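HUMAN:
Sorry, I am quite new to this. Are you able to go through these amino acid letters and fold codes? The numbers rather puzzle me.
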Amino acid sequence: MQGGFHSKVSWFIGITLILGALAACQQNGKGGKDDSLAMRRDFAESPVLSPAEALKAFRTEEGFQVRLVAAEPQVIVPVAMTFDERGRMWVAEMTGYMPDTSGTGEDIPNGKIVILEDTNGDGSADIRTIFLDSLILPRALCLVGNGLLVAEPPRMWYVEINGDKPGRKTLVDSLYTEGGNVEHQPNGLFRAMDNWIYSAKSSKRYRLQNGKWLKEETHFRGQWGITQDDQGRLYFNNNSENLLGDYFSPGLGRINSNQRRVAGFDENIVPDNRTYPIRPTPGVNRGYMKGVLDDSLRLVNFTAACGPVIYRDNFFGEGYNGNAFVAEPSANLIKRNILQDSSVFVRGKQAYQGKEFLASTDERFRPVNLYTGPDGALYVLDMYRGIIQHKTYLTPYLKNEIGMRGLTDPLNCGRIYRIFPENKKPETFRLSNDPATWVAALDHHNGWIRDKAQQMLTDLGKSDMVPQLRARLQQPGIGRIHAMWALEGLQALTAADLLPLLDVIDPQLCRQALAAVPSVLNAANVALLRTRLAEVATTEQTAAMAAYVLPYLAKYDAAGAQTILSTIWKQFPNDKIVADAVISNVKDREQALLTAIITWSSDTNLVVRRRLEKVLVDITNHRKARLDEALVREYPRGNLLFKTICQTCHGADGDGIQSLAPPLNHSELVTGKKERLIAIVLYGLTGPVQVNGKVYKSPEINGDMPGIASNDEFSDGDIAQLLSFIRNAWSNKADKVTEGDVQAVRRKYKGRQKSFTMEELQ
């Protein structure tokens, strides 16, 4: 972007933005020339700040401070992190991410997993040890036993640890990140309370048990980053939504694959997506669109929400334990949300209006992941770079912004910060070698300590601690549920352990015990557990959880499970969450249940009936939607591009994904006028979007679909193949798109940057 033409274009766009903002300010009576000059000064340059200078650029909530833990060259482009029992940080460095706006060199094996250690207790890392190097875009890691799970697309490896050096390497999943691109691939590898490892942007979960890796289907969740609360419920988000999450234990509710949507999972926890940057933020991918930036050129709503964490400690003081913190790297800030748990639902709101928990005036501050540390501080991973938008969807507008302010270089920066109260000193809690202290640590005020103690007990197979864990199980307090899951992880949990907990007097504890029932059910105890399940199934706060457990009961007592299921839907026929839990029991038997409901009641408005009828429609559509292998052979490049840029949001079956994108299957936007579809794919579409009479809009889906017109990776022939493929995949049937068709649309809209709206297309 050094040449004359491009420099003039960049200058013109910058001036246009300033004049537009100035005009808006003048219309609102807010200012004039001085405001324009001030805004121009704010974003005309984005110099690289030293760590000391970067600290001065932060504005935090009153009473808190930010301290540097590590900076380049100790850490470079950190994207994921975990702590070990000694308090050391294991960090994934994605050094190769977007070296320039074309992504040149992303395939160079320069990524690393490093160990950072603070040996003198001053809060700053002073030793860097490279554990793994020569990795291509490593994106997630998780300590399990004496080894480390590492996600290096498309594979996930388990690497044994021998004195901080890598040992034997085992392939856990060859297709961990199948399809998608760097922005839209699984990540997180979060080890939840139920002893399973979950990922964002994924519907798989993993577990090491008896020396073998298990892999199971679970709910599809989020985009980048994943966390849990004190009840083991998972939270996540996508780039335009503040916080999403589950009401129930994460391992339940996915037995019926015919259900497209299961109420109580992937719920919108904090619907307010407003952001409050403290600097102009024109360098966002859709900054040219009306409503993306306000009059002062600051981001209005989330566009890159990521890396959420539920803060689980009392170190911050009253009112912070259980808060959700969310990163927004495009606006250089971290948001605080306050959650409220009703024992059935979790609802949240932003902690403040008009300000943020932390924000920076430094455009290169790019927080991408947040963690609660073993010292109670909030840890922030800062990629510290200019480019964060991946090339696949990079708009010409943002390319110009990057060029104007020289945001491509440098590529060798990265920072880790920790945030904590001004009047307190964080002290890292280190777990000793005595397993008895691990049991005691299950009651520690810091959630990370509790989780780690549970994991160490299970990883090291400390069966000699079972008596102590059982004793702990009989006492109230937060350590009780960790003791239960530690016993489950040791495969020592029994029905006798659970029965005292399966009491509706304490619904929260009862739901935890219900989540563990599938681990203990067998032919010997089925009668005992059936009786207790029948009891908890009649209470509103526990009925849905009881229904989720019934498929496991049915393996030993189908008639008993059916009787309890009938009791549940007859008692709660208008509860959406209970209805979906009931439907989860009847895979491929949905019609029989519908017949039973109609026989019982002629009311066509019963929620359970309407939810069931929707599933039956989805089943019919899905059966018609089998991908024709001949189509894949005819359009191999189209099939590949679909998996790379479409599948991760619209689903492998083309039926769309909750919170991300509407369906392509049965979509008139796909099978209608091909010129319209070409325009959407080239230039993007901004919501609301109508498909088959249903309006999809944020927050139900991501509000915008980016275009790929400026992506040099895809030729017009490639795009034609992609569109021909989706126009004839699943249940779709439409004429093919040619390279000439794509070129004609390019000529018609030459120079266009902004996305289309439904109104324009119609």
Remarks:
- Confidence is low (pLDDT under 50) at residues 1-34.
- The chain has four domains: 45-254+266-421, 433-493, 504-605, 629-761.
- The first strand starts at residue 58 and ends at 60.
- The radius of gyration is 26 Å.
